[in-house]
Amino acid sequence: MKYNVAVLTLLFPAFAVASAQVSSHKPTVFTGAPLPPAATQVQKPAQKPVARVNGALLTNADLVREEYAIFPYARQHDGIPKEFEKQIHDGALKMIIFEELVYQEALHRKITVSNARMQRAEADFRKQFSNPDEFKAFLQNDFNGSRQLLQEKIRRSLLIEALLKMEVETKSLVSPAEVRASYEKNPARFHHPETYTFQTISVLPPDKATAEQLGEGRKRIDSALRQAKATNSSEEFGLLAEKVSDDDYRVVMGQHKPVAVGELTPQVVNALRSMRPGEVSDVIQIDQAFTIVRLQQHAAEGQTSFEQVKPQLTKELEQNRKEQLRMALDQKLRQNAQVEVM
Q1: Which of 46, 279, 288, 307 is 20 to 30 A from 151, alpha carbon to alpha carbon?
Q2: What CATH number should be reported for the domain whose range is 194-300?
Q3: pTM higher than 0.70, yes or no?
Q4: SS3 305
Q5: What is the pLDDT of residues 87-114, one digit of tens each?
C-alpha cells in the first residue's frame, strides 16, 4: 500500500532542487512522504544520522522520505533515477534541515497547537487508510506501534506549518495595486502577436521524390481534400487527419496550438487570411509537401488585458515572494545555528 501524508503534504518540485534553494514545500508528518513499501517492508534503512541541527539528529530515514516527496515517481521506477540522485539528495537534505530549524524556532517562540486542531489533523491523516488494520500495520512499521510518537510527528508538522504561515504565507500576499503596477511596468510581456489556430492534413512524399511519387502524393491529397470539404466539425476533420495525414499532428487530430504569423510559411498565411473559422482550404503546396488546413480561430495582434492576466499574475507574484521569504527565513535561522552534515 502506498501512503501519501495527506494531512500536510505539498510536494517539493522535483526539478527545483537543482537550485539548492529552499522551495515551496509544506511540512509533512514525516519530514517528507512515508517510505515506499519496498523501503518500509524489505529495505527499511537503519537510523543512520545524516545531519545534526543544534544537537537534534536527522536520519537517513527522514532523508529517504523527503527524497520520495521530491520525486514521487520513484515508486514507479523502483527508486530514484541515477541522473537525478545527487540533486534530489541535496535538495532533500536542505529541506529536512530547514524544517528542523523552523520547528526549533516555533518551539522557541512557544507557538502552540490546540487539541481540536490536533484531533482534526490526526483524523484527516487516518482517512487515507482503507481499514483499521492498514493503519495499525503502518503505525507498527513506522512508529513501533506508538500512537504517541505519531501524534508528536503530527504536532511537529503543525508547528512548522504555523510558523511558515506567519513568516511566509501571510507576508507573501500581494495587493491589487502591486499586481497592476507589475502589469503596467512590463507591457512587452503581455503583448501577443497575430496568431492562427488550425488543423492540418498533410501528404509528405519522400525526399527527392520521383515524378511518379509526386503524382501519387497529389492523388492522395486530392482525395483527402474531397473528404475534408465534406466534414462539418473539427472532430470530423480530426478523425480524417488521424486516418490519412502523414504529419506528426495526426496523433492529435491534426490540431495545432495558436501559431504566430511569423512562424508560418507565406503559402499557409495567404490561405488562412482568406478564410473564416470552420472553413477548409484548398491544397497548399510547400516544396514537395501538400497540406490542407482547417481554420479554427484568428487572433489579431494586441495587448492582453489586465483583467485577463490578473489571476495568473497575482499567483506568480505571490509565489515569487514566497520563495524570497523562505530563502530569507532559511538564511536567518542558519545565522546562529549549529548545522553539521554527516
Answers
A1: 46
A2: 3.10.50.40
A3: no
A4: coil
A5: 999 999 999 999 999 999 999 999 999 9
